[in-house]
């Protein structure tokens, strides 16, 4: 078992390492929503990728710097005062911190000088540090100069005040937003021929000398549409004045111009702003679209999207819509602003910005995603989209891709259990506390309207909407151990090992899922999973109560039953025999002290009734990229019939008990009630089922090795039901179609031409 405390995830996203944006002072950041470059304020940048935060900071979470050369950097518009920040050592399998961590300053962002260099850090608490950069410095960064294995750095609550400025210092603002020298104003406009005033606040940041302005002039092809009607001549230290620009459009559309403010600031004496005036109600529509939409690094759970920028760059940028399963037919509305996560009809906004690459969130296996890219000019109510012939394209995520992972595993050999355990136990162990940074941010969370995120409680189906990072405390969610921690022979597995450590079985994210803490996780407690007959309580799709034997059990919603079963089977197979301990489903201790058996037949029944779907297959692929191991019962569902999970013994004949005792394999659908045609088939296959009652069912297709190549859930009404399947992507050969329903199981062999 390889144990690490950091992980770098290459996700093909566009990382910005040298941002040219400046940040006004004062500025601060507490890392509460830190997810790499995209979550930082303007003027801040980083090259940190992968696991971004520690769950314990000064308050809330803290930034995580765990690789040599990683940094957090700030580019300021003005001199900095005394900066403050907190640092703490985070340790792996070492007892004390070593290495070199630096805080550096720079005038130009290229040549760096050390402000401080730390070779020891406190491992028990966050320490507060204060440093004062030189007055000429405009850059500061926190930089991991020399990394020693097992030694990482937590950083939190960075605050950079405005330094004391003696000479005149100009700052221009519009509607309380700072506009930097060379920047662009917010859009403003009026009907053709009608004047409108745009006011700009001029602030003198000096503490000692007056700022004097000698005028404002305009240049560019539309300069005649602008006139400075009010220009303050002198602004006292710390005071403000108002510069008023009158705009009179002569034609409709975008009428940009450049305004130059002459003043006595020693380094910004000709302060320029790009003015964005609009005649009428909308900016000019972009004349061309982006080109060459492409998809890279396509996997079951992720892909990168890129395109060539339009030959005439839109001043607003690009808006990208995504739709699952069919082409995008929706269009953005002129005059409307959208944020990532918003819906336009049945399509979702997955990107808004000036760049030309991004990585969409929430992807599942074997699914076609369609995109449309629209250029736009302007902002706010003046936004104008080019909706004619947008750039379009699609990508289909891959399915399960174990490759040669199971090449040494044969379920027909007596050593099957040992071989399987040796294969899946060897993996990278990630900290339980990193679950939000790995599973939540990079796979399980979804974008939703208003720039927020949503995650689903796997037990109940509750959708939790949140802003920034998911907080296990304030958002009332938890990381549920499907195989309960108190069942583990190594209990308490979460508090053993170095640095308060966590054993691999406690960390293993194959059996960790997000759940509502109070209404789901705490109710389940360490009760066995089972069929509730006498209900004590319910929460959405989940139940708690007594089973047919009068034992308290917890019953998840139907769509998670198979997932939970496979997670438990995985834990038994992966850890059985570890440190001499037996991992099975035989005896677990309830809160009352009563012993009971976690019914493996219930789990096996759920496993077959709720086979791996596209989400679970993608999750297995993603976890393989994180931990380097797979859940074999997702890749090979029939292998559960080779294992007696009550005592972890091998079953040579997969048709013998305990599979038969599950009531699944011996309850076959009558041959007259099911048909699969045409056979041989080419691109399409029809499954016909005569159901006894209204019910849910699943249809899966396996190749001759047992690999599931298709899996989907359906509903059936009493009587005849038809299910057309698209099998055009399957390779030629022999396959088995399995139908699992309340009426039983039916298996048919087909040939794909």
Quick description:
The chain has five domains: about 1-160, Galactose-binding domain-like (Jelly Rolls, Sandwich), CATH 2.60.120.260; about 170-280, Immunoglobulin-like, CATH 2.60.40.10; about 290-395, Immunoglobulins (Immunoglobulin-like), CATH 2.60.40.10; about 415-660, no CATH class; about 670-750, Immunoglobulin-like. It has eight helices and 52 strands.
Q: Given the structure, what is the number of helices? A: 8
- Integer average pLDDT: 89
Total tally of structural domains: 5
Shape: globular
Rg, rounded, reads 31 Å
**Helical amount among residues, as a percent range?**
10-25%
Distance between the termini: 44 Å
Provide the structure class.
mainly beta
Q: How is the biggest beta sheet arranged? A: 6 strands, antiparallel
Low-confidence segments:
1-19, 660-667
Beta-sheet strand percentage? Answer: 35-45%
Q: Could you give the count of β-strands?
A: 52
What are the key terms here?
Jelly Rolls, 5 domains, about 750 residues, globular, 6-stranded antiparallel sheet, mainly beta, Immunoglobulin-like, single chain
Give an overview of the whole structure.
It is a single chain. This protein has 753 residues and is mainly beta. It has five domains: 2-160, Galactose-binding domain-like (Jelly Rolls), CATH 2.60.120; 170-279, Immunoglobulins (Immunoglobulin-like); 291-396, Immunoglobulin-like, CATH 2.60.40; 416-662, no CATH class; 671-752, Immunoglobulin-like. The strands form 14 sheets. Strands 2, 4, 5, 7, 10 and 12 form a six-stranded antiparallel β-sheet that branches. Helix 2 packs across helix 7 and helix 5 (558-575) crosses helix 6. The model is unreliable at 1-19 and 660-667 (pLDDT under 50).
